[in-house]
Amino acid sequence: MNKDKVRITDLATMKAEGRPIAMLTAYDFPFARIFDQAGIDVLLVGDSLGMVVQGADSTLAVTVDEVLYHTRMVARARRRALLVADMPFLSYQVSAENAVLNAGRMLKEGGAEAVKLEGGILIADTVHKLVGFDIPVMGHIGLTPQSIHRMGGHRVQGRRAGHGPGCRERLLEDAAALEAAGAFAIVLEGIPAELAGEITARSGVPTIGIGAGPSCDGQVLVMHDMLGLSESFMPRFAKPYARLWHDAGAATAAYVREVRERAFPAPEHCYRMREA
Ligand code: KIV
Asked: Ligand 1, atom 8: nearest CA belongs to which residue?
């Protein structure tokens, strides 16, 4: 039994004690192991994998089987962090029964400890049903990438007053509905920092922000943004703590040069015949 293991219940304690929650996305064994060893609290196998791993321009085409494939790799690497698997577009919207079956696979086949769903009031009944079957749910409101077509792109939400989708008062209602339905935490993505602060202050469950300012109970970044592993675009809210795209390119160019110059392999990289 790993006594350092982060459990669902620990996140509530962290909020109560004012200890920020550090969360990152991960999609494979090596990075998940690096993040876990470095002390990350929550690993999310995000459907962002459609964009940052598969190279698509939205998350919409990601399937349950693809999230499962990556979740299994991350689960093998993880020792301490809480593991959350994202529910892809149309894997939970059609019916609560379908949502239970798909979410259940994330726990049974993927080794996840919780699932994440995008949406607020409209999916509260489904969240309630999942939680009732002991499938812990992390909510996700604000800029929800699965709503890219309704939002007209990846746009900051909550700037306009009102009760329509993505409006200020509606986001407060969405957060309250998710909490009432039993979500154990809520991701706040792409909303003004003041609004995120208000939701966080009213919420009895931890909020985890991405592009939502410093008042949230925790922060999450897509690992490629945190590590500088993107070719060019870096969203305003992200901070690269390394320059892996650049460094990997420089390493590859050095390798290519040494192969062409016959500088690699050097004698120390060669096997020799055994002496007779
Ligand atoms: O899919 C994802 O990576 C996410 C995070 C950005 C929260 O939903």
From this structure: 46
| Residue 254: both structure tokens together | 């050095």
Give the pLDDT confidence of 190-236 residue by residue, as tens digits.
999 999 999 999 999 999 999 999 999 999 999 999 999 998 878 89
| Residue extents of the structural domains in the chain | 8-229
Report which ligand 1 atom has the smallest distance to the Cα of 23: 7
Second CATH level (architecture) for the domain 8-229: Alpha-Beta Barrel (3.20)
Ligand 1 centroid from CA 157, angstroms: 16
Which tens digit of pLDDT belongs to each residue from 88-133?
A: 999 999 999 999 999 999 999 999 999 999 999 999 999 999 999 9
* Nearest atom in ligand 1 to 187's CA: 7
Q: What is the dihedral of CA 66, 67, 68, 72, to 10 degrees?
A: 110
User: Is this model's pTM higher than 0.90 or not?
Assistant: yes
